[in-house]
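Sample entry as discussed:
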Amino acid sequence: MSNQERFSELLKQLMDRFGPSLPFTEAATKVLRFPSFCAAYQARRRGKFPVRVDDIGGRLTVSAFSLATFQLDGKPQYDQDSAPPRKKPGRPSNVERARRALAREGGAA
């Protein structure tokens, strides 16, 4: 069976079972086998959820096409997330302070 045939079969199974777009929690727990939806939310917040997530009308969804692509080739789609996690506001860490200091010294020299 070729890759194209396997992809078509997998996509058809996902579409028959869930439709073209799955709720985030179902995609995470039933298809991707996260232990809980909380673990999936944490992975997404950290930028480690392996499939592209879309925010449609305030609800997180995953397309069946993205799931089939991930399950077939196993390559994460981190960079394609529609809403990348935001950095928390607050004081800069010591690492950030050191980087800024080095950048200032390097730019002045």
Notes: Strands lie at 21-23, 54-56, 59-63. Residues 3-18 form the longest helix (16 residues). Residues 19 and 64 are 7 Å apart (CA to CA).
